Amino acid sequence: MRTYLDCLPCFLRQALDVTRLIGADEELSERILRDVLQTASKMDYSQPPPVMGKYIHRLVRDSAQAPDPYASLKQSFNSMALRVYPELADMVRQADNPLEAAVRLAIVGNLIDFGTASGVSEEQVQREVDQALDNPFQGDVASLERAVAQADSILYLFDNAGEIAFDRLLLDLLPLERVVGVVKPSPIINDATLEDARACGITDMIPVVDTGSDAPGAVLEDCGEEFLRHYRRADLILAKGQGNYEALSHMEKNAFFLLKAKCSVVAADLGCTGGTMVLTRSGGSDS
Known about the structure:
By secondary structure, the protein is α/β, with parallel strands linked by helices. The protein is built from twelve helices and seven strands. The chain is globular.
């Protein structure tokens, strides 16, 4: 997905949010925001938004010497997600369609995103959990089920800390011997790293590699060779979140994207209303 003009205010809002999160003074905040404005004015809008996201958050980390501004938030939401996980697992087990329930709840976890909003609370996440099986949903779960059954190699691209525990609900229904998980190699917003995967029990379930890039989405031109080997070999991609949708939705690869449409630009690209839980396919063909 390319960058739209409506993405520009979001870039500036992200930069302002993180400067406030780290307690940057006015001088540093102004310098960072001016740099972001100047770079955004020159960027190639045919590139996906995560390209600019990488630049913004690398700039803040380097300028403020803050290697992981979202560290405490990530730990907090990992703990919260693990606390509610038994409740969620019961919801899946008792559902008429366990796979659809697991998909919906995995997508609910995508609400834990500090890149698309100024903040999210544990209470908001719990409200979404309570409504997960009834809220608007766009997607064909039966098509996903067939694709999983036919796939010899599945690559699961995780998105955020906290959210990654919700993904366990879907992983439990997949052929784990055929699944490899993907995280980020280093801190970028509140995206999940290997540390988060360990904390949430993912590494006990499946092998986990990283993208080799600190972009908030798998921008292939920026990814490392280990990830690219898995990506080329996989005959099915399951990708969580807006960043991965923005980075990969145009690729000719058999992929399902699982996300909550949290901004008007992505919602328009998906053909849905804002806030909808979405399971959408690109590339490949159903049979």
